[in-house]
Design brief:
The protein has about 70 residues and is mostly helical. The chain is about 80% helix and about 0% strand. Helix 1 packs antiparallel against helix 2 and helix 1 runs antiparallel to helix 3.
Length: about 70
């Protein structure tokens, strides 16, 4: 369980940085566009949640698969 959650957070960070770069976000205190700031908010709040739900779904499906085998 912990491994899947950590992997989800690592993936969120890696994906988020690439998307933020493409959205034009500059972290050096420069004026960012509203689109870049909105992208930051969505990625910071939403992407980890979505990836955690995916990790939970994978764990639950694996558990169901293991029950059907035995």
């Amino acid at each position: 369980y912990a491994l899947c959650m950590k992997a989800a957070m690592a993936m969120a960070s890696a994906i988020g940085l690439v998307v933020l770069d493409r959205a034009g976000f500059v972290p050096a205190g420069v004026e960012n566009t509203p689109q870049a700031l909105a992208t930051l908010c969505v990625l910071y709040a939403g992407l980890p949640v979505i990836l955690k739900f995916c990790a939970i779904w994978l764990l639950m499906s694996q558990r169901d698969h293991d029950r059907n085998i035995t």
